[in-house]
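Ticket reopened. Same input as before:
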Amino acid sequence: MSKDENKKEAVISLRNISKTFQGKKTINNVSLDIFPGETFVIMGCSGSGKSTLLRLMTGAIKPDEGSVFIKGKDISRVGTGELDEVKKSFGMLFQYSALLDSLTVEENVALPLREHAKLADEIVGIIVKLKLSLVGLRGYEKYYPSQISGGMRKRVGLARAIALDPDIVFYDEPTSGLDPVVGGVIDKLIKDLSLKLAITSVVVTHDMHSVFSIADRVAMVHKGELVQVGTSEEIKNSSNNYIQQFINGRPEGPIDFFKEDIGILEELNP
Amino acid sequence: MVSKIGSVVIEYFSWTRGVLALFYNILYWIFVGPFKGKAAGRQGIFAQMVFVGVRSVFIVFFVNIFTGIVLAMQSAYQLERMGAELYVASLVAVSLCRELGPVLTALIIAGRAGSAIAAELGTMKVTEQTEALDTMAINPVRFLAVPRFLALFVMLPALTVLGDVSGIFGGYIVGTGSLNINPDLYMQTTFKYLEIKDIYTGLIKSFVFAVIIALVCCYEGLNTKGGAEGVGRATTRSVVLSFILIILADCVVTAIFYFSKT
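Engineering reply: fixed in the latest deploy. New output:
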């Protein structure tokens, strides 16, 4: 953490959080600060707990121990009403977009506005058009999610996430399952949004290309623990073996590919 | 063995508790939510009413009219021996309004609309759509379950009335066409023995069935786990459980009416 960041107050901060699923410790004593306006990337292998970390920040799951502060409010301890207020101040882009199938593109983007902002229909229509043009999808208002491509669905999801002009946007694997060009478009959108709208972005991904093109700071998660947090330069030049193995995608190294605890020999000779 | 029985019992209790919690939540969003400025969307309710009600009109009509026909023929077979064919009219009317109309209609709707509700909500659950709603601070129960509950609660009794009428019409076809009963006399006999309480006990049943279908199917849908297979399982479970609970509730409600001499 550099010195000038210390002066700013963290917009999201995790304090010693742990979470156990079915007896397995998915998150182990993680503390983390994310500052206003930065793009913070959480990277790690599948199953490392990075998505769980994101869900802890959005309040979708509650930590067993520790606290999650969003803008100073401990969302692991507030009631539903207050939690809803916090939720309105952030947007989230889901891995598979999670658009409502029964609604058109336009209605999907309008949904948070219709639910939370008491606005006239015309105003909602204008905001929807504005958000769709931000993600470059004007003209697709009347389409259903099943009629457009995966990359377009992601962009609609992004338009929906920013519909209420949030301060924070969470991205769950924004580029996974997309071709490199569309992935690049999404990366550019994330960068643009954080520059134009001063949004704090928290991105969970294992797409290395996207990590270094968008990140201000990066955290590497392995087996539910933070390996290192630093600027993208620091991470790129890190001497940590885990990070070097991950960045370069080497099969050999400290990160174990084999998940099972029982060796093959043990099973053959019981 | 003991632990297996124990786990089944625990599962049963947690299921019941989950369904009752959903019922409580739905009632909260119907009666308390609107005063906090959080009413369920009227648009969603109408869309569900069209789906549950209007689109089921034909099949309800179809099943009940043939049940009326069969009921008339079967009872005529017995009553003919005593020369009492005329009473086919009242027998068909009373048994349809009190019993068969509500139960058959509820079973049809559980199979047609209930399964669709479970499958739709289940798919929304496994594709993160309900989580997305939750993240947008939109309560999934208010947004998804309440419109479906209200639509069933209004439309099932309405469809039951339609079922009663079409069943009586089925009996009328047999009575006037095959048993040669005078049409006027048939209708007179129908209404002579059909009392208003026969109709409202049937309707009370259909309200109970509507609650059962809505709760079971919404609960199974919103608690789906495990991808496409999970959606299939939730759909099957919702239909099977609705059927069992409808028959069970029918027995209980009928017993209450019987012993309270209604």
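Strands of chain A lie at 12-21, 24-34, 39-43, 65-70, 73-74, 90-93, 168-172, 200-205, 217-222, 225-231. Residues 1-6 of chain A have pLDDT under 50 and may be disordered. Please confirm and we'll close it.
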